Amino acid sequence: MKPVVVRMLCAAAWAVCVVATVRTQQIPAVPAKNDPRVGLKAGYMDAGEAAKNLQKVATLPKPEGFYDKENPAGAPTPPERDPNLPPPPPPDPNAPPDPRFANMLGFANSDLAFTGTHAVMGNFHGFNTYDVENGQRPKLLASVVCPGGQGDVSVHGNLLFMSVEQTRGRIDCGVQGVQDKVSAERFRGVRIFDISDLNKPRQVAAIQTCRGSHTHTLVPDPKDPGTLYVYGSGTSSVRSAEELAGCSGLKPDEDPNTSLFSIDVIKVPLAHPDQAAIVNRPRIFADLTSGKIAGLWSGGDHGNGTQKTSETNQCHDITVYPEVGLAAGACSGNGLLLDISDPVHPKRLDFATDKNFAYWHSATFNNDGTKVIFTDEWGGGTRPRCRATDPPTWGADAIFDITPDRKLAFKGYFKMPAPQSEQENCVAHNGSLVPVPGRDIMVQAWYQGGVSVFDFTDSTRPVEIAYFDRGPIDAKNLVTGGYWSAYYYNGYIYGSEIARGIDVFKLVPSEYLSQSEIDAAALVGPGEVNIQEQQRVNWPAASVVAKAYLDQLNRTRALSADRARAVRAALDRADDAGAGAAAAGELEALAAQLERDARTKSGVDAKRLQALATTIKGRATKLRS
Amino acid sequence: MYNLPLVAFVSFASLASLASFASFASPASRASVGVNLVTVAALAQAPVLVQPGAPGEPSKVVTPDQATDLSQVQYTGADIKFMQGMIGHHAQALEMVALLRTRTQSADMKKMAERIRISQEDEIKMMQGWLARRGQQVPTGKEHHMHGGMLMPGMLTDDEMKRLADEKGKAFDKLFLESMIRHHQGALAMVKDLFATPGAGQDSDIFAFASDVEADQSAEIARMAAMREELER
């Protein structure tokens, strides 16, 4: 019972709890017994919903052409069969397949990318473009049919990149698949579309790869803005050399040129995307001393009672942070930290192994580039892995600090805490930072476990601060669905729901997150956002940013009430029309006091005090100009 | 609304360039597409459904029915046979694991077997659901015991099962590991056959499942081979 008491205290006074509880070892959150997410009514478009500090402001169902009309949810409920009836005759293997049964993942929504006032949602069947100028009223622009899965998308200028891995993928975007074992019509790799007309994207290039592209990551050339690199991660079977020259699925000891144990580095000349080509297949899993290609986790468990971890012969997803020259590779059996200052030749700095991880799936840096969160996709995303009986450290996030000498140091786990049913596929999946200054906050998709927002400012003690969840798609069967990705963009959180469409959420102020913190995050504004290509956020010297820091300092009681009141009043005066040198002088004097305050504190409080001082100094400078 | 005339112009220009496509060759369908584009232009914001061509080729407007015609890439007879056969195959693995409970002293063996049980039980449920949803015959997994029941690759005959059941202790462990390695290798062969059959393994669920079987069981074979070696020492 003790953990429950601690948890309730935390809920009552989260800030105090976080500060008071200094631990190096994460203790998993105990699922709350009366969490409103437990026992939600099942339904396709009418499932029960539960939300905390998150408000759903818009939903768009899947567009025409991206679902099976006979069965929009993706899989029919099996009819009850009278057990007394004789079994039906075995099917004729030569009969044509019944077109009434569209497969589930055939039309699954996948990853999201954003550019300006637009969002692009990938799908195993192609992608959809949306106008999101007003997040509360998203509008579908174009549905683009081009099957092959997973359909993960990224944008760069007028170009859109899409991952294709399945053997049904065709060069010409046809829906009919490829029947021959070896075919020049088959496409597995990275497609490039021209999206200068978002109403009518056009395919301009398609780079074939041996294992196809399960995911990909855009990497800008640090020296040449005319060149873009793409890291292609293939996780599927290797095709034959007859279909694509040079491909080999043999083990490293059978063929040193195997297509396994590498990633694809594709160089894209932006003026001529049609000339894009693979320029390297770096052996980033090699043993650094012996040079052996298969140098990392060889697959299997880690001893008694531990998880079985997949072999590291692939990356599932790579997140780059070009401004700090780092990439985090979620590579099947290990989490990798890579130096990408030379993008063509990524260099491994460190790797992590975790006895609770089944499959290293994706990665997210914090804004300072001092932490990285890796996700574990135990069960592959189609299995229920958030049941009350599933360990809270399995299928979870692992939070690492990046040490000054660029090594990974494990700090804690986070798993969405509400137990889900047998009918809900659920495990850690894609998320992004919520750019609140002064804190590390992430919003994350958990498939049918919903969307969860958590704070990991203290890497050892992540705390959930908001959520949204629906009941299962079907009461009896597990129908694959839920959120593939949940990303923050321009003031809203967008969720790509595999089976149901796209949902948009707004953060609601609570004891965990103030209105000023929410408004400060929204100041970041629109841009070009690929979550796997992280960009550093720098907040403007605005009063609301200062107030966000004030709210945080108040929460941890790191600033006297008098000082906080004085700063708040000075900021309000600065925002008055006609404010001038006097208001600026007042802010500058307060900034000097805050800098002195900062020197008496340590850790996150000192950082916030310093950031507050810098922000109000900047605000004063604006007043004077 | 200022861009309305421009939208109309673009739409009709695209229509002209589309006329050469086979799907728009008949005057009737061309007319109906024309109507659609007029509607698109009139509403200005009505979403469009398009299908790109090969790199460098133009995109064309398609109908929802054309977009969702997956009749060529859905499951094939080989997929159904694979799923039905794999249920019996998995079911026998569970029977073997059940024998182990009373016949081994090794904690490692028990743990390894427990993992096989959890994953294969889970997968049997998934396969049965997949078949039921497609209105196909759903095996219980006991069929191979019936007279004339077919054995999938790597499966043990009833006699071989009896021999295994008669062993105890280390001798059991050894025979169990040998049998289960053979059994798993059979599953790998089934996956290989599936992917080698034209048109098979393209359904997204089958593709994902068969890939999982390949990865999981290869890893388990390696683990069991290592345990087998330890026994020899």
Biggest interface: A-B, 86 and 63 residues
Calculate the mean pLDDT score of chain A and round it: 90
Output the number of helix runs of chain B: 8
Note poorly predicted spans of chain B: 1-43
Biggest sheet architecture of chain A: 9 strands, mixed
Sequence stretches where pLDDT stays below 50 over 5 or more residues of chain A: 1-30, 76-81, 90-104
Query: What is the string of SSEs of chain B from the N terminus onward?
Result: HHEEHHHHHH
Based on CA atoms alone, the radius of gyration of chain A comes out at 25 Å
Oligomer: heterodimer
Strand content of chain A: 25-35%
Class based on secondary structure composition and strand pairing of chain A:
alpha+beta
Helical residues, percent of chain A: 10-25%
**Tally of DSSP β-strands of chain A:** 32
Please characterize this protein's 3D structure.
The complex is a heterodimer of chains A (625) and B (233). Helices cover 15% and strands 29% of the residues of chain A. With 625 residues, chain A is an alpha+beta fold. In chain A, the strands form 7 sheets. In chain A, strands 1-28-27-26-25-29-30-31-2 form a 9-stranded mixed β-sheet, with no helix packed on it. The longest helix of chain A has 22 residues, at 603-624. With 233 residues, chain B is mainly alpha-helical. Helix content of chain B is 67%, strand content 3%. Chain B has 8 helices and 2 strands. Chain B has helices at 4-18, 27-43, 64-67, 77-103, 107-133, 158-166, 169-196, 204-232; strands at 48-51, 60-61. A two-stranded antiparallel sheet of chain B has the order 1-2. Chain B starts with a helix and ends with a helix. Mean pLDDT of chain B is 78; it is low at 1-43. Chains A and B meet through strand 6, strand 10 and strand 15 of A and strand 1, helix 3, helix 4, helix 5 and helix 8 of B.
